[in-house]
Amino acid sequence: MQKLANCQYWEPVGGGVNRHVRAFYADTISNGLYLAGTFKFANGEEVNGIAMWNGEEFEALGTGSDNCVNFSCPGFLSVMQYKDELYCSHLGFSIGGVQSHSIARWDGIQWDSVGGGVKNENGGGAIIWEQMVHDDELYIMGRFTYGGNVFSPAIIKWDGQAYLPMDFPYIEPLTNISPQILGAVIFQNELYVGGQFASGTNIQDHVDVAKFDGQNWQPVGGGIKGAVGDINDLFVYKDELYICGNFRKSGGNAGNGIMKLNGETWVDVGGSFDEETVVAHQMIEYHGDMYVFGTFNYVGGGVKASNVAKWNGEKWCGLPNEFDRRIERAIVLKDTIFIGGWFNFIDGDSIPYLAKWFGDYVDTCQTVTGTILGQKAVDYLTFSPNPFLDNFNLYLPESFTVATLTMYSSTAQPIHAQSIQAGWNMVRLASLPPGLYFYEVRDACLPGQEGKLLQSGKLVKVE
What domains sit in the chain, N to C, each tagged with a CATH number? Predict the structure, then answer.
């Protein structure tokens, strides 16, 4: 098994994959994680762009893409389950020997086409960035013109038998790229979509985010301002609609890379990202907080956040890890966060393209995160006495050379920290007032970082 740094909170998934991961789908019935992208191998076995992780090993879906070369495949872009079949969009010409035209479905045994596929105006391959199931219909979104023989640019529905048009009214933006939709969500019973599209040919005509009420399309919040304004994802968190992408304040928007809807207006989210070059790819919810993934370094006016940031509705925090390249996709399965993208190293450890989160940590805003009080990774740390008067003794077993003790107030503010050695250690807290305190003991780590949690719990100081 790969040896990771003491401070590492991410680990490989099985033997990993050899190239970019672009899409996930979590099957909560079978607890299987479907992953897709440009990789050809998973754990060294040929899977050709798509596989399922069953918790122990990767499983191939037939022969996968037919258009792979030495080490990579043309690329899968989205994965969604609909009517007990797995629908996958891709950039190749065929899957499992079936001519599929950008989208195919897997029934657990074999691949099949989807109503003649999705195509651009000249009949060539299309790009399908997103799929979503709503009201027993599959919404297919991206950059294309036809589904089968049905004209429906950028978005079309599939009911299991036929394609149905969506009459998307917008045109290509200033970039001279066909209009495209990259993300979608249902908010207050209406369909919201985001991407690159406009109502006209001038810069002020950029829309990039719109909603469909079942009858008509209309812009939302006045649209996105400036020549740079892609929307990559839309997400509902605490009954509010958030969008993320690579739009900028300098273009006239309320935030860099992320905003939320307040009535009919897009507003700032806690200061948003510090860099205008931010590209935020995806948002998910985990343990009541919203996590944002992409390419960025700081958020909320100086909070360090390397490609992962956490928002609790009031303030931003960052995780303690450093990623060398972007994170594009994230998903939660069995209370575990999985991430995929173009990264190769996490805190100097080689964990390329695919990883899962496994550790408790204290984030950069200094609130205790992911820790259940009383949790123990080892059962032989000893605190004596507890309750204590001014001092207590802490025993660290010989299997740990050095560790760090951190004490927190009842409001989770750090109030005392010290290094502890193997054996008995005296902890002097005479200056603290009586009351309830929380503690964490972690593996020793690099300065400024937190090691893996060994034990946490409560301590009581008495008069």
Answer: 10-361 (2.130.10.10), 382-461 (2.60.40.3080)
